[in-house]
Amino acid sequence: MRPTIPYVIAACLIGLGVYGVLARRNAILVLMAVELLLNGVNLVLVTADVTVRAVVPHGGQVFALFVIVLAAAEIGVGLAVVLQLYRLRSSVAVDEVPLSEEEEEVKA
């Protein structure tokens, strides 16, 4: 198997994920970009497992399974945070989130 095509696709997924995290203002879209990043990493892990037989058999696939579990937990917690942010601010824009109590006192 030629690993070039899966690695290029994984690089594109990771690049799109990084762009989405850095350029988006909506928290839901940022979470989707993080999912793209994790899917790119999964593709790299599985491709490396298939092309390079390491000491641990199917190690890349096992790590990819752990990344999928981590992504599911991240989405659960992330959506809970976004829903609470929407209830408090009626907006899910990342730019409008106060990072300290001083910023909130100045606006009030």
From TrEMBL:
GO terms for biological process: ATP synthesis coupled electron transport. It is a multi-pass membrane protein. It is an enzyme of class 7 (translocase). It catalyses: a quinone + NADH + 5 H(+)(in) = a quinol + NAD(+) + 4 H(+)(out). The chain crosses the membrane at residues 6-24, 62-83. Keywords: Cell membrane, Membrane, NAD, Quinone, Translocase, Transmembrane, Transmembrane helix, Transport. One of its GO terms (cellular component) is plasma membrane. Gene3D superfamilies: 1.10.287.3510. NDH-1 shuttles electrons from NADH, via FMN and iron-sulfur (Fe-S) centers, to quinones in the respiratory chain. The immediate electron acceptor for the enzyme in this species is believed to be a menaquinone. Couples the redox reaction to proton translocation (for every two electrons transferred, four hydrogen ions are translocated across the cytoplasmic membrane), and thus conserves the redox energy in a proton gradient. NDH-1 is composed of 14 different subunits. Subunits NuoA, H, J, K, L, M, N constitute the membrane sector of the complex. Belongs to the complex I subunit 4L family. PANTHER family: NADH-UBIQUINONE OXIDOREDUCTASE CHAIN 4L, NADH-UBIQUINONE OXIDOREDUCTASE SUBUNIT ND4L. This is NADH-quinone oxidoreductase subunit K. The lineage of its organism: Bacteria, Bacillati, Actinomycetota, Actinomycetes, Micromonosporales. The gene is nuoK1.
